[in-house]
Design brief:
By secondary structure, the chain is mostly beta strands. The chain contains no helices and 5 strands. It has one domain.
């Protein structure tokens, strides 16, 4: 999808700003139904794009 460009801290959960190679951004809330796995060592995150995030 791209690289995490920024992280917004909100009251209930963080929001990851992911930017692809063309500069398009997608906002991913840091919640269990979206963020499925984070591998810091490999710098990878598995996500589930729920309806409304596509």
């Amino acid at each position: 999808m791209g690289k995490i460009d920024d992280i917004f801290k909100t009251g209930s959960n963080d929001v990851y700003v992911v930017k692809d190679e063309s500069g398009k951004q997608i906002l991913l809330p840091a919640i269990e139904s979206v963020i499925k796995h984070v591998d810091i060592k490999e710098k990878r995150m598995i996500v589930n794009l729920i309806k409304g995030l596509e």
